[in-house]
Every structure is written in structure tokens, then in C-alpha cells.
Amino acid sequence: MQAVSRTALWVASMRAAEAARPDRLHDDPLAAAVVAAAESIPAAPPGAAEFMAVRTRFYDDFLLSSGATQVVVLAAGLDARAFRLSWPSGVRLFELDLPELLDFKERLVTDTGLTTTCSRVVVPVDLRTDWTTALTAAGFSASSPTAWIAEGLLQYLTEADRRRLLDTISALSVPGSRFAFDHMDTSADDRESVVDTLARIRDMGAEFVATVDDPALWLAAHGWAVTTDRVPALAVTYGRPLPDFMDPAAANATALCTATLPLAGQPLR
């Protein structure tokens, strides 16, 4: 499989490990099947699975609280939210990613017999090119409020591709839309544990840019109200503080952001 798919396998293996815990923050019926189907998956560094569990729960909570009936998962990878979350009635969820990765995922879904808990639409695209045409053709409505997520995506994009993606999301969003994403602060560049993790990701062949200019500032300048959470604080909120051996400064370097396009008359907060 291509390099980006190898990182998707890596994330799935960490989600499978989390699902096996009695105090798990999420369950994932597809993750174990992914691990069983993969020939080999690089080992995660210490603390990575705990970090990933918090990040996953953040996006789960965002989607279920968004109130949107139209959801777009950018770079969906082996994400199983269409199958594992208890969606309210009427939700249509679009999964966007590379064709070969989505084909692999579809085979696993068929083999495991999973059924969706929402209306799921698969859209094979490359997010570095024009993807709005395919999304619209698949039934996306630019006149309806949308809940967007870009989980672990912005770190893989160049500055130009990242700005193009944010431009596109803004152009397709109407007031009431929400957008959740994560990014790494530049402070992560000096943390040994982060450098080690980035080296492992790049060894998989992924074009990992890592730290980026703050996209929250860009979104705020374009009318979005943005709030930011940090992984260690969220871990405490979820009742699962990060292990003591983890570098708190490194964990704090990842920002988990929620952006809202306010309705008319609503102030920016």
C-alpha cells in the first residue's frame, strides 16, 4: 500500500489497542480487522496510543454534538465513525480519501459485515486537487450547514495545499457550519519525543510537514469563531490522564481546534 495508507494502518492499530482496554475512550469494530489484514504495522512509540485515544474522542464528541445532518470526513482513511457512533436520524456522512485506500477499507467492511448507523457516501478523491466536483456530484449540499473534520490531515499538507483546503471548506460552508481540525505548534520541533515520532512517520514514506502556521488565525480572519483545546487537559476531562512518562510540553504542542461559522447576528467568541 502507498505511504499514506501505511500511516492509516498505524493509526488503526492504535485504535485497536484502545478498543481492547476496559477503560477505553472509544470502540472501533473495524480496527481489529485492519490489524489482522495488514502484513506488518510499525510499532507506535510509548504514549502514542494514549494520545491517539484522546484525539479520537475529541472528534467523536465534536461530531455528535455538532447538530449537523451533513458531515464531511476529510482524509477519512480507515475511520469507522459511520459504523461505530450512535448518529441521530437523517445524518449523511461523506468520506473523502484516495481511491486505493477506500477500496481496501470497503473490502474490510464487507468481510466484517459492519452496518452503518447513518447514510454513508464514499467519495474517492485526492484532496490536493479539485475535490468539490466529486463531493457535489455525490450529493453534498453547499446550502446546508456542515460538520467538517480534518483529523491528522493538515500536518501532511504543504502551506499552499493547506490554504487551498481551508479556502475550499470556507467556500462550501454556510452559517451554522462547524469545522474541527488539529495541528502542531512550532514548539514541537524541539521536543525529543515528537522528533522521534515524526521520524517514524517519515520512515513510512509519508510527506509529513508536521508543524504549521496556525490555521486558527486564518479561519478567524475569514469569519470563523475558533476555540482550542490541548490533549493533556482533555485527557483529564475524559478521566484518563496521560501517562506520567509522556512529555507534557510535547503533548501540549498539538492543538485540537473547533471552528464555527456564526449565524447572522451571533457574535464571534
Automatic annotation (TrEMBL):
- Keyword Transferase attached: yes
Source organism phylogeny: Bacteria, Bacillati, Actinomycetota, Actinomycetes, Pseudonocardiales
NCBIfam families in alphabetical order: mthyl_TIGR00027
> What is the name listed in the Swiss-Prot or TrEMBL entry for this protein?
S-adenosyl-L-methionine-dependent methyltransferase
Q: Which terms under GO biological process does the entry name?
A: methylation
User: Its family?
Assistant: Belongs to the UPF0677 family.
InterPro entries for the chain: Ppm1/Ppm2/Tcmp, SAM-dependent_MTases_sf, SAM_mthyl_Trfase_ML2640-like
Name of the top EC class for this enzyme: transferase
Do you know which SUPFAM superfamilies this protein is assigned to?
A: S-adenosyl-L-methionine-dependent methyltransferases (SSF53335)
Keyword S-adenosyl-L-methionine belongs to the record: yes
Q: What is its EC number?
A: 2.1.1.-
For this UniProt entry, the molecular function terms from Gene Ontology, in alphabetical order, are: methyltransferase activity
The leader peptide range reads: none
Could you list this entry's UniProt keywords, alphabetically sorted.
Methyltransferase, S-adenosyl-L-methionine, Transferase
Which purpose does this protein serve, as stated in its record?
Answer: Exhibits S-adenosyl-L-methionine-dependent methyltransferase activity.
